[in-house]
Design a protein that fits this description.
The chain is an all-beta fold. It is built from no helices and 16 strands. Strands 1-2-3-4 form a 4-stranded antiparallel sheet, with no helix packed on it. Strands 5-6-7-8 form a 4-stranded antiparallel sheet, with no helix packed on it. The two termini are 17 Å apart.
Length: 216
């Protein structure tokens, strides 16, 4: 949608991009829009600098030929991580984080994780990626070192970790542990707990700093 003239918005529709697109992400530089597909492997990508080229498919068939796991909770694309030149994406129904080169949008790696990832979120400086999981592994959070391209720490913040949010400079991360009725704050350098805040069934955590960013 082009809102240059708010009274007469111009709408462009891209059809047949894949089966059941369900959520989207804009990269932090504002260039690419990505849509996850519920009904098949792969992602639909639109270059917003060149929208006339239409939508193309990337990362197709990452689970092809392998037995699919049941999907207990769909990943949230707004939680995809862009760190440096890499994108870290939750593999739908798999115990993996996919790594793609944002220059080519080709898969360059996979990182095994404990469960089915829901949010895969980068610390603002891109040095770490934090991952939470669908049931039955939703009491764990894993930290990926983006230089080593591997999990370096598994944390247990509480039962049913639903969401996580970094402070604007990334020195801390807040996590909601819904079934333990608390929000847990970690130091991202030491991975030590800084605080525990009582809250009734907390879910999403959204800092006001989001209002000034592209690519949420």
């Amino acid at each position: 949608m082009d809102l240059a003239d708010p009274r007469h918005p111009a709408l462009t529709k891209y059809r047949d991009v894949g089966r059941q697109p369900y959520d989207g992400l804009v990269t932090p530089d504002g260039r690419y829009y990505l849509a996850g597909l519920f009904g098949e492997d792969g992602i639909a990508l639109l270059d917003l600098w060149r929208p006339e080229q239409g939508v193309r498919r990337i990362l197709g068939g990452y689970g092809k030929g392998e037995e699919k796991l049941p999907v207990y909770k769909m990943p949230h694309l707004r939680g995809w991580a862009i760190a440096g030149r890499h994108a870290y994406l939750p593999a739908v129904g798999r115990h993996e984080v996919l790594v793609a080169d944002t220059a080519t949008w080709e898969e360059v790696g996979r990182i095994p994780v404990q469960g089915q990832p829901v949010f895969v979120m980068a610390r603002p400086d891109g040095r770490q990626v934090w991952v939470n999981f669908a049931f039955p592994d939703n009491g764990a959070v894993q930290v990926i070192d983006t230089l080593a391209q591997a999990v370096v720490k598994t944390l247990a913040p509480g039962k049913a970790v639903l969401h996580l949010e970094f402070t604007p400079r990334g020195e801390a991360v807040w996590l909601s542990a819904r079934d333990d009725n608390r929000v847990v704050v970690y130091d991202t350098a030491s991975l030590a707990v800084l605080a525990e805040l009582p809250a009734e069934s907390p879910s999403g955590i959204f800092f006001a700093a989001r209002a000034g960013r592209i690519g949420l």
